[in-house]
Amino acid sequence: MSEIIKLMSEALANQIAAGEVIQRPASVVKELVENSVDAGATKITVNIKDAGRTLIQVIDNGQGMSEKDAVMSFERHATSKIYKTDDLFCIYTKGFRGEALASIASVAEVELRTRQEDDAVGTCVIMSGGQFVSQSPVSCSVGTNMSVKSLFFNVPARRKFLKGNTTEFQHIITEFQRIVLTHPHIEFSLYHNESVVYQLPKASLKQRIISIFGKSLNSDLISVDIDTSLVKITGFVGKPSASKKRNDKQYFFVNNRYMKNAYFNKAVLLAYDKLILPDTAPPYFLYFEVDPHTIDVNVHPTKTEINFENGPDIFRLIQAGIRETLNKADVAPSIDFTNTEANEIPYFSKNDPVPEMPQIQFDPFYNPFDSTEKKSYSSASYKSAYMSKYTETRERHNLENWQSLYGQEQLFQDDDKNFSGAQQQSLDLENTERKIIQIKNKYIVSPVKSGLMIIDQYRAHYRILYNKYLNQVDENADGVQTLLYPQELPFDIQSVAMIHDIQDELMSVGFDLDLTDDTKPILKGIPPYLDNNKAVTILGNIVDSYKDESGNISSSIKDILAKILARAEAIQSGRVLNNEEMRQIIDSLFATPEPNYSPDGKQTLVILNMDELEKKFN
Ligand code: ADP
Ligand code: MG
Known about the structure:
By secondary structure, this protein is α+β, with helices and mostly antiparallel strands. 37% of the residues lie in helices and 20% in strands. It contains 21 helices and 22 strands. A hairpin with a 2-residue loop joins strand 4 (122-128) and strand 5.
């Protein structure tokens, strides 16, 4: 019988290891940039072509390598960072497995140019598919310049598995961001296909965060400083008002290494308990410093999951420490919890004036209970353009609705007879005195033929304004109000990428954008009916909503815009309404095509019918 067990070739072993460490171009970027950081660089430049398929180049001004080390660095388990097992538990540098360069070289063509300060000439090493090709002297500056070309050229399965360029580049940005957020004192640049994506000078941590995520975050951050014997936590958390659904600006770092930690995330959220709405989350950038002996970073090859010896204690420290930070920053709850959908998206800053109750034009003599309403309504000369828009729809959809609701037979007339015994006034007067009350400053209650109608004031008004704005957006299709002073948008790179995708749609509702330079998106024109001061915030909200709703094709930009404008103005619960306002809301609600539901598909009203009422008195 012949021997069947053979030792794997070194190249094959490296390729297998590469499967673990190098999953996509972003993994290469991560490993190379981390090596540059470990080499003490103060300036690191990353050049990417075709989302890393063609080229990933990382240039640093770190300590460089000697002629011998340059070749050695591609050997598996070659590392200058770990010499004995005890070091494994005490790691301060990023790399330590000595696998990255060997793995990368096994699945690509690599050219390394490097020079140390004391050497007159540098050295150039070329590797291809794990094989050494050549080494030669080269003149180059101090530091290391590593070019990785044709990634996965010899592993077609891997290459096929890569996603589109947008997705792969997005992964690169994600890895890049995680590293630059831990090293604000290092200057970084990222280029894609020769255009600048990030140019980050040496900065403070806050400046670095803002240069990544946009100026709009500036006033939202509260600095954190929790110092205990177990852990030191610094960085920033967002004000409660900055919390959002699906917040992606959440970062934990431990000993300057990015980590995922669902458990600690929970601790942060508990600190915000009752300060933010359920289902929303604040941004945070928290940096933990712990004794490296108390963590195990080696649980996963890509090293984003980290085990903590003192996990539960740290959990409690996070929760209490952040709660205290928030208390000190005096961010008392400013949210009405009974009003869940009203705060889905923060629209305007606290300093903005509270929007006034929109004045809905109405016909004070319009009588929805009059069976002859069709005539009186359509002949009314004072009806607003908005109301008239809906006359037709209303006739189609709601006349029946109305009549079955209130009945043909002058319901309120009956009420008056029954309860006040008052003499019948003229029809109009009687109906302006329709019985309507508000309860808990939240619901509008009115008797109807079949029982009692209860309307949620916020949702109803949201529905009314939504249809109004939808209409306005339609009427102004392609209209643009050109800005006298084009404005630079304070958006992060992901938002700008998103805007690229939806630029045409944004233009169709009136947002004219100049995106020739991704780092400087310019707003040139806005929809004609929008307030200049609010346009940028609203555009930001559209992009955020679009992100949230991506995948949900039913939402067009037009729809999102109408929802945002409507939510911003809709009267919140908690607002006291007078009779006239309540009457306007009821009338206008039933003038919309879908009075029973808010634009988000939530019920605007319920009717408690007589049967149900009577059952309660059984
Ligand atoms: P690790 O980072 O885990 O040690 P790598 O395979 O990433 O393993 O790198 C192997 C070795 O090559 C490193 O330990 C370091 O000595 C050297 N090296 C890699 N990149 C650089 C760089 N940019 N500058 C200086 N030395 C480097
Ligand atoms: Mg490394």
